[in-house]
Each structure stands twice: as C-alpha cells, then as structure tokens.
Amino acid sequence: MTSPTASAPATPAAELPGTPLQAELQGAVDITPQALRGALGRFATGVTLITCVDADGARVGLTANSFSALSLEPPLVLWSLRRASASLAAFEHSSHFAINVLAEGQIGLSRRFASGKEPDKFGEGLWSAGLGGVPVLAGCTAVFECERVSAQVAGDHVLFIGRVLRLADAALPPLLFHGGRYHLLGEIL
Ligand SMILES: Cc1cc2nc3c(=O)[nH]c(=O)nc-3n(C[C@H](O)[C@H](O)[C@H](O)COP(=O)(O)O)c2cc1C
C-alpha cells in the first residue's frame, strides 16, 4: 500500500514549517551593505586568484574569497564576481577558469590582484597555461581548473559555477582572510 505522503507533491521551501518567507526575512532587520559586509567578514575564508583569458587571449584575473565547494559528484565549485568588475566581460566570454588557492607566502599576489589600478597583474608569479589557456599559478596550496557550466546574475554579482576538470593539491599552509584582514592558520583544536 502506498503511504499517504508518498504521492504528495513536494512542498516549496518557502512553505515548509518554520521557514520564514523571503519578504519576512527582508523586513526583519535593516540590512545595510556596511552591516552585511561586516557580518560576512566574520566568516573566515581562504583567498584565491581566479583567472581566465579574454576574447583576445589576454590573461585576466582577480582576488576572490567567494569561492566555495558546491558538489562532489559531479565535481562543481562556485564563486561570484561583482557586475561592475572590469573583468566581467572576460569571465563571461571564457569557457574555462582556474581557481588558484593561495598559500601563506602569496599575500603580495593577493594584494596585486585586488587592485583595479595594477596595469600588469601577471607581472609577478610563475604562471603557465592550463586547460582552455587559463593562467595557472605555481606555489599555490591547491588549483582547480574548471569548465564554466553556468553564469547567472544574482543581485549586484554574477554567480559562476564550474565543473572541475583538473586539480592540484599541494597541501601547503593557506593564506586566510577574516574581518577584512589577512591571517595565517592558527592552532589545530
Ligand atoms: C580578500 C579579497 C576577496 C575578494 N573577493 C572578491 C570576490 O569574491 N568577488 C569580487 O568580485 N571581488 C572580490 N574582491 C575584490 C576584487 O579583487 C577587486 O575588486 C579587483 O580589483 C577586481 O578586479 P577588476 O579590477 O578587474 O574588476 C576581493 C578582494 C579581496 C582583497
């Protein structure tokens, strides 16, 4: 016999018991960009340089900590790029991108790639061409070479999802970012 719930249609997430509707969530607190940035900064992250090639084959990249794991099978990762970024057109064009996860000694590269005024971001570091020609950095703690599977506008950012085609795992101590500052890894608990 079929149980009463087996054929019931899936309940939309917003209607699940105890799940506030989007409108209620938005009205709950006055969420200014400053407050949001501060609270998000409590979430410690690693630091990555995400790279691609533009329509002319020129190398493009930026410092990003929005990188996150998404799926193991299939192997998917995500990150987001400000829509106002000078790098947006290149990432929308490029079929591939690389996530270069910085090691603790690579803070200079992080600062360099976070500067919109740096005329030659790739003038420092040992770079090689990975899948799809994307720049891959030597000395990282990990590298994920990805094929872009989607790019969708989400607020003032574009959310990129990539399928990992190749990875490198050097297991070096990572560079960390927390509260708007760089950190080294602390004690293991
Ligand atoms: C630690 C750190 C993390 C960052 N993460 C992101 C990010 O995830 N997405 C983003 O669009 N910008 C991020 N930025 C800012 C960009 O690195 C910066 O705006 C850069 O200049 C963008 O490149 P562009 O000049 O080509 O637009 C981050 C900066 C720092 C220092």
Describe what this molecule looks like in 3D.
The structure is a single chain. The protein is mainly beta and 189 residues long. The protein has a single domain (46-178), classed as Roll (Pnp Oxidase, Chain A). The chain is 15% helix and 38% strand. It contains four helices and twelve strands; from the N terminus they run ααβββββαβαββββββ. The strands form three sheets. The chain has a seven-stranded antiparallel β-sheet with strand order 3-2-6-9-10-5-4. A hairpin with a 5-residue loop joins strand 7 and strand 8. It is globular, with a radius of gyration of 19 Å. It binds flavin mononucleotide. Residues 47, 62-66, 79-82, 85-87, 114-116, 177 line the site of flavin mononucleotide.
Give a quick set of tags describing it.
mainly beta, single chain, seven-stranded antiparallel beta sheet, 189 residues, 12 strands, binds flavin mononucleotide, three-stranded antiparallel beta sheet, disordered N terminus, 4 helices, globular, 15% helix, Pnp Oxidase, Chain A
The helix content, as a percent range, equals 10-25%
Poorly predicted sequence stretches spanning 5 or more consecutive residues: 1-15
Indicate the mean pLDDT: 90
Global structural class: mainly beta
Say what the CATH topology is: Pnp Oxidase, Chain A
The succession of helices and strands, N to C, reads: HHEEEEEHEHEEEEEE
| Strands, count | 12
Give me the secondary-structure topology.
Elements: H1 22-28, H2 33-40, E1 45-46, E2 48-53, E3 59-64, E4 68-71, E5 76-82, H3 88-93, E6 96-101, H4 107-113, E7 127-129, E8 135-137, E9 142-154, E10 157-169, E11 175-178, E12 181-184
Antiparallel strand pairs: 1-11, 2-3, 2-6, 4-5, 5-10, 6-9, 7-8, 9-10, 11-12
The chain binds flavin mononucleotide.
